[in-house]
């Protein structure tokens, strides 16, 4: 039996795959006109404050987290640095490769999936059901689902119960500096790696990858002068940068095509990553196997075969 002529087979396969790829990418990663990835805004933005609906309290709030997610990871690192592990417990979710959403390891409030819980918190909710979630057990709702805000809350609202209450990740004297770095790092690095990986045109990828490595070079230079980005102590900027750097050589370098350079090859960024990793409580928040499984195993349009690579060797993180 004669097969299809190879040229026709290749052209057909390419056309079918490209159409499917664009459809899936459009769902997974909404993009603008130029094919640039556009991250949707978070919907729940309450604070924790005295005399408010959500007052500070021990054992009242929960963090819903997926271990692969860099945004959820920020909240685990802030929680660890403050020593809030006892005060705020976590509820783990894992990604479902087939349903495209997070699943509870054990049903929570009768919900099997995170979207169900979002709809419990806000009937009719149509947006993305993302992690992290800061959940209030008392009113049974979502206080906040924006990691950038949750880490500010964790830094300030629970010091009374913290085992390291003196740690201040957002000191007033450094606020302007922290905010400035955060803006640049969010766009070029934290979201920048996603802009590379989720780019739907060559031009969008080229823009993102150039901005990413320009920012990494600038950060590397800044770190030649001081141990942490804003000086001698760890701040929220370092927390926000850490969770992206931790994933960089493992997934972003290869899966997201951020491969001009590895973090461990930078003169200052490499040791900086190691320094942060070795701070008390931080290593326990890092689950490299979950990171690999969640990215390579679940971002189907980027890795249709679902093969999870064996490397790289991360021993350098624990080196002195
Ligand atoms: N702005 C959010 C973004 C969080 C986010 O995008 N989380 C991803 C996991 S890495 C997620 O839960 N995605 C599920 C979805 O989009 O359906 C934050 O920083 O808290």
UniProtKB/TrEMBL annotation:
InterPro entries: Glutathione-S-Trfase_C-like, Glutathione-S-Trfase_C_sf, Glutathione_S-Trfase, Glutathione_S-Trfase_N, GST_Omega-like_C, GST_Omega/GSH, Thioredoxin-like_sf. PROSITE patterns: GST_CTER (PS50405). GO terms for molecular function: glutathione transferase activity. GO terms for cellular component: cytoplasm. Residues 171-295 form the GST C-terminal domain. It holds the Pfam family GST_N_2. Coiled coil: none annotated. This is Glutathione-dependent reductase. CDD domains: GST_C_Omega_like. It comes from the Bacteria. Glutathione binds at residues 102, 128-131, 146-147. The active site is at 69 (nucleophile), 194 (proton donor/acceptor). The record marks 252, 295 as: Lowers pKa of active site Cys.
């Amino acid at each position: 039996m004669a097969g299809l002529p190879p040229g026709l087979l290749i052209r057909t396969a390419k056309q079918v795959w490209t159409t499917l790829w664009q459809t899936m990418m459009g769902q997974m990663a909404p993009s603008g006109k130029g094919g640039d990835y556009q991250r949707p805004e978070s919907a729940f933005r309450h604070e924790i404050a005295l005399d408010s609906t959500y007052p500070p309290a021990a054992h009242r709030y929960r963090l819903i987290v997926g271990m692969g997610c860099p945004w959820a990871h920020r909240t685990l690192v802030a929680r660890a640095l403050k020593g809030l592990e006892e005060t705020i417990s976590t509820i783990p979710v894992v990604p479902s490769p087939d349903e495209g959403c997070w699943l509870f390891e054990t049903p929570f409030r009768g919900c099997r999936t995170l979207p169900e819980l979002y709809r419990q918190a806000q009937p009719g909710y149509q947006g993305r059901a993302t992690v992290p979630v800061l959940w209030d057990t008392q009113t049974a709702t979502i206080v906040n689902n924006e990691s950038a805000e949750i880490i500010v809350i964790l830094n300030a609202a629970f010091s009374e119960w913290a085992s390291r209450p003196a740690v201040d990740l957002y000191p007033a004297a450094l606020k302007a500096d922290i905010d400035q770095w955060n803006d640049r790092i969010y766009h070029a690095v934290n979201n920048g790696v996603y802009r590379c990986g989720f780019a739907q045109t060559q031009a969008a990828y080229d823009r993102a990858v150039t901005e990413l490595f320009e920012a990494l070079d600038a950060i590397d230079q800044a770190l030649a002068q001081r141990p942490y980005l804003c000086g001698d102590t760890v701040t929220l900027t370092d927390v926000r940068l850490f969770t992206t750097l931790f994933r960089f050589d493992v997934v972003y370098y290869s899966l997201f095509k951020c491969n001009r350079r590895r973090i461990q090859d930078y003169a200052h960024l490499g040791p900086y990553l190691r320094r942060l990793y070795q701070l008390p409580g931080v290593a326990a928040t890092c689950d490299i196997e979950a990171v690999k499984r969640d990215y390579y195993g679940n971002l189907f349009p980027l890795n249709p075969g679902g093969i999870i690579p064996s490397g790289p060797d991360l021993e350098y993180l624990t080196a002195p």
